[in-house]
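Worked Example 4.2. Consider the chain below.
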Amino acid sequence: MKLKFLLVTIFALWGNFAATAHQVDSVELEFLQPEGEWKLEGLLDIAYMLPEIRGVEGSLPLFRKDVMEAPPAEHERIRKNAESIMRNLLELKFNGKTLPWEIRFPDFESKPLVLPPEEGGWALMKVEIITRQQPEAGKLEAFWHDDLQSELIIIIEEGENLGLLSVSTGMSDTILEKEADPDDGSKAASTTPDRSALAESWIISGYRHVIPLGLDHLLFIIGLFLLAPRWKPLMGQSLLFTFAHSITLALAIFGVISLPSKLIEILIAASIAWIGIENLLVRELKPKRLIIVFAFGLLHGMGFASVLGDKLDGISGAQIALPLVGFNVGVELAQITVLICSFLVLWPLRRWTKKVQIVGSVFVALAGLFWMFERIFS
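Applying the procedure from the previous section yields the following structure tokens:
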């Protein structure tokens, strides 16, 4: 009875987790330092800024042509809602003190309204967020508060150096630090975040794309655990899986390989079903499992590329290296976390290890098959 109760509880939690999952959104802004000001500017998806659409599963995007042809009253409603939501999402602090900021939507200041062109025809609008530069030395931080689990991507350019800061929801990161000028304590020089701070932000981003957002990736790792719940071989499989998906992730980001995103999602679901079914047919870990893990890792890397590619759009060369490495390190740390939690769940049930392996593998296989057919016919 204890075994049955615990398994039912786990499956109920997984089911609830799946039901509340949603597409990950990101807001990308560039950080600038015009005379006397700090500015964040970029493009916003108008649909993401409207309370009746954002976060609604299956909602359709707004299209550029339709928004531009809407009456002035609707344009004003869009502008007001966008400002209200951005003020709820973004907080800027300097030395721990909240900074007031102004927000502008330059497109809506022109008559008639002309929105930026977009390849898919979606409705985007320019945004500018401006605050005064502070004269004293200190730290400027961005806080991101979004219940939709989105990320704020900040592009920071300083001469030839380019930094990409990923601020996860409910967290903060340093945009810049101002240090006192050694020759004159009344002056301050601005410096962008060091590489360790940027790397940390991308490690967090990679971690979140498995826990809590990557349910399909999470189930794949659980599938590996269920065949042979032994730490040494599992760590080898986890590292091999990360190595494989880091290869295709990099190749896809650099544009060397490309597959339709729908096909990739279908194949990822099939890989989860394969692992679950194979667990039921194979009684022990064999060397060929490593080949399968590597092959499926290559596939999952292309899936990550569809998420990371949009965030790194327009960034090229060596500037991509830090986000790629940090993201993959975060994914590996999340996989280790999944394995640790799996061992903790299995420990009190060790008398029924075989039953847990069978029931868990059935669940993984069914989840993979369900997602596969759902993605084929969606």
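The chain has a mean pLDDT of 80. Residues 26-202 form one domain. Compare this with Example 4.1 before moving on.
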